[in-house]
Amino acid sequence: MAAIALSRLSKRFAPGAPPALEEVSLEIAPGEVFGIVGRSGAGKSTLIRCVNLLERPDSGRVEVLGQDLMSLDEAALRAARRGMGMVFQHFNLHARRTVAENVAFPLEVAGMARAERERRVAELLPLVGLEAKRDAYPAQLSGGQKQRVGIARALASGPRILLCDEATSALDPETTAEILALIRDLRARLDLTVLLITHEMAVVKSVCDRVAVMEAGRVIEEGPVFDVFTRPTQPTTRRFVAEVIGHSVPPGTLSRLPQPGPGEARRLVQVLFAGPHSTRAVVSEASRDFDVDMNIVSGRVDEIAGEPFGVMALAAYGAPDKLEGALGWMRSLGLHVTELGEAA
Ligand SMILES: Nc1ncnc2c1ncn2[C@@H]1O[C@H](COP(=O)(O)OP(=O)(O)OP(=O)(O)O)[C@@H](O)[C@H]1O
Fold first, then answer.
1. Of 192, 224, 244, which residue sits at a domain end?
2. Measured from the CB, is residue 21 less than 6 Å from ligand 1?
3. Where in the numbering of this chain does the ABC transporter domain appear (predicted)?
4. Domain range holding 275?
């Protein structure tokens, strides 16, 4: 059974306005960290708010842990919402409450007795590394510490699901990495399912198992993070992926490349290495076997979801048919070879 099953969700905020969501269907498995990425206005916030029905879709079905949320009455919906914690971009802390009081707030609202609230807060603060800040006020905390409070508060009612709405977008890269590591750690320790939305592919790369890419209210691509990064099929996804892995070759570099000799052609290509061939000496093999010269213009090796992955720009020189043969051979190994324009 999926932890979250969204089926054909549609939402329009005003008649005639473009749809904020259009027929969005997603299934998120228990224990997954699932990312939704998209530009501003793509519909990510609307979608995540539909998961706990802070926003009601016009049509479609929202199932969480097997429960059809749209069929619940107010009381049952409140109970279902306690099974889902939410973390916000701007933390949404009460300035005049201490860390402990902020974390305890949802428990207070739910009517939990003070002694039990205190016991629960004493369990939660060490989970997010904030025992020492128990009595501090938000203004005395760094951004990362504020978000740790936000996370502890989201976990107060012992949810099985954590919804993160741009949880790291207000943080610097180092703090972002810490918070993402904390989310992954909590996922494992508390057996959580995490749904997060972000406009940053770097967040997806470092924390998610699967990802859906949204554009204009629709999911345009979806899959395991490694697959989406190494074989993006949609132009928007390619642009997102390029932000993280990069592939551009500086124009100055191109103009300094040697011209092809007589009878030679030059092909400028980007090669994505992923999986079993990522460590094979493909460039030297292709050069030797097809009698071409390959000049590495740029390159980088990385890891996504624990799998090796590389991207390289090559200027290849040789007889046109030999070049075609070499590039075809590389493709036959499963490498993703794309022209960077500029055929000579
Ligand atoms: N409460 C609302 N009333 C009217 N229109 C809304 C409302 N909330 C969102 N929209 C519109 O719905 C579309 C999707 O917005 P949404 O906030 O879900 O996108 P997003 O991908 O989360 O973008 P951002 O990162 O900027 O929040 C946008 O066109 C937005 O203007």
1. 244
2. no
3. 4-241
4. 246-339
